[in-house]
Design a protein that fits this description.
This protein is α/β, with parallel strands linked by helices. It has two domains: about 5-320, Aldolase class I (TIM Barrel, Alpha-Beta Barrel); about 320-390, Alpha-Beta Plaits (2-Layer Sandwich). The protein has 13 helices and 20 strands. Helix 1 (about 30-35) runs parallel beside helix 2 (about 80-100), helix 3 (about 115-125) packs parallel to helix 5 (about 155-165) and helix 5 (about 155-165) packs parallel to helix 6 (about 180-190). The chain binds flavin mononucleotide. Belongs to the dihydropyrimidine dehydrogenase family. It comes from Candidatus Methanofastidiosum methylothiophilum. One of its GO terms (biological process) is thymine catabolic process.
Length: about 400
């Protein structure tokens, strides 16, 4: 029987698809509704002992042809402190009883290691099955919190150690992509005692500028600031970083731009043991997950996978140094003339961005002497009707 259950850091999840720590997990009711819609659980919005306030507004969408593609936020961690969360944990414990949903609590402290240990112990006492350490928010107003820690390799190790030694449940450290070498920071977290890591948190950006006023976006009444970027735009960054971590043999919960069941499989194939998403749930609601579990099950049946463990990490051995790629095969473009709508985007792209080899796509007229097989025409084709085929001698 094919099923979607996974064991991650020794904890059983009915589905590997979790909500990540963000507004969709701002309280237990949100997490409960997400589980009822099909999520395998939700990581609580990051809990601390300190009170934070959020700027209003605090989100800025980035659109491409009117479709949301990325989002910058300048939001902090939970505006509710630990004491407020105690009653929410009671609801999460009930959810564990009725639905078997593990409790994953995200926490944050500053550079005081005792505070990390105390908070980790406190959420463990509230029933947390996994504790996620947020050392990765890139825009905390307390500049000695969040990514300040995650960008410091030894400090990340120390924080992981302080929390891991204080509790008996597994700890995973949530890493920032705003670093040069995420794998070495993941290794340090694990050396400190984390059972695994979660990656990625948001990418530090400036999402735009209002050219009428010169104000940065998001525009908080004339001022703004750099903030965390999320959504489909960051998925390639997330996939690369999860791959870098997973190939060190480190357990990782993959995050960044997931908005379809295919994206879930991409993250698992590059080595994630579970996945998490936030932005897609903010844009489209929890029902976005409806059908994903079923689609993944069907995919697994069609491709002969008995469990997600069978496909986990299958891409890792296929990632290699570029000098080891095949430089021998000569390829060229081949157009399916039936499906070509003669929009000629391939002609323009090839003329100005490549070698001017695409002559008349409607007649599959390609200058084979000039075509270097770069694939630009295939990439820009809105009909997906160009293939790259191997040149025969
Ligand atoms: C509005 C917003 C608030 C967030 N707050 C938190 C947080 O409190 N703690 C945390 O660890 N990550 C936080 N994140 C980061 C997300 O959990 C996630 O790592 C990131 O958004 C990338 O995933 P996505 O592209 O699916 O949104 C937040 C993200 C957004 C968009």
């Amino acid at each position: 029987m094919v099923d979607l259950g996974v064991e991650f850091l020794g904890v059983e999840f009915k589905s590997p698809i979790l909500l990540s720590s963000a507004p969709p997990t701002l309280d237990a009711d949100h997490i409960k509704r997400a589980v009822e819609a099909g999520f395998g659980g939700g990581v609580t919005k990051t809990i601390s002992y300190r009170q934070f306030h959020d700027p209003k507004p605090r989100f800025q969408g980035v659109k491409i042809r009117n479709r949301l593609f990325g989002m910058q936020n300048i939001e902090h961690i939970s505006t509710y402190v630990f004491d407020w969360w105690i009653k929410e944990f009671k609801i999460l414990r009930d959810l564990k009883k009725t639905h078997g949903t593990p409790i994953v609590a995200s926490i944050m402290a500053g550079t005081d290691l005792d505070e990390w240990a105390k908070l980790a112990k406190a959420v463990e006492e509230q029933g947390a099955d996994i504790i996620e350490l947020n050392v990765s928010c890139p825009h905390m107003s307390d500049s000695a919190m969040g990514a300040f820690i995650g960008q410091d390799c030894p400090l990340t190790g120390e924080v992981s150690k302080a929390a891991a030694e204080a509790v008996s449940v597994p700890v995973m450290t949530k890493l920032t992509p705003n670093v040069t070498d995420i794998a070495s920071i993941a290794k340090e977290a694990v050396k400190g005692g984390a059972k695994g890591v979660a990656a990625i948190n948001t990418v530090l950006v400036l999402s735009g500028i209002d050219i009428n006023t010169g104000n940065p976006l998001p525009d908080v009444w004339g001022k703004g600031g750099f903030g965390g970027y999320s959504g489909p735009a960051v998925r390639p960054i997330g996939l690369r970083m999860v791959g870098e971590i997973a190939r060190q043999g480190i357990s990782v919960s993959g995050i960044g731009g997931i908005e379809s069941w295919e994206n879930v499989l991409e993250y698992m194939m590059i080595g994630a043991g579970t996945v998490q998403l936030a932005t897609a749930a903010m844009w489209y609601g929890f029902d976005i997950v409806k059908g994903w579990n079923e689609n993944i099950l069907n995919f697994m049946k069609e491709h002969g996978y008995d469990s997600l463990a069978d496909l986990k990490g299958i891409t890792i051995p296929k990632i290699t140094e570029l000098e080891k790629l095949d430089y021998i095969k000569e390829v060229y473009s081949d157009v399916d003339t039936e499906r070509c709508i003669d929009c000629r985007r391939c002609v323009t792209a090839c003329r100005d961005g490549a070698t001017n080899a695409m002559k008349n796509p409607k007649l599959n007229d390609v200058d084979y002497e000039k075509c270097v097989g770069c694939g630009l025409c295939k990439m820009v084709c809105p009909q997906d009707c160009i293939s790259m085929i191997i040149k025969k001698d």
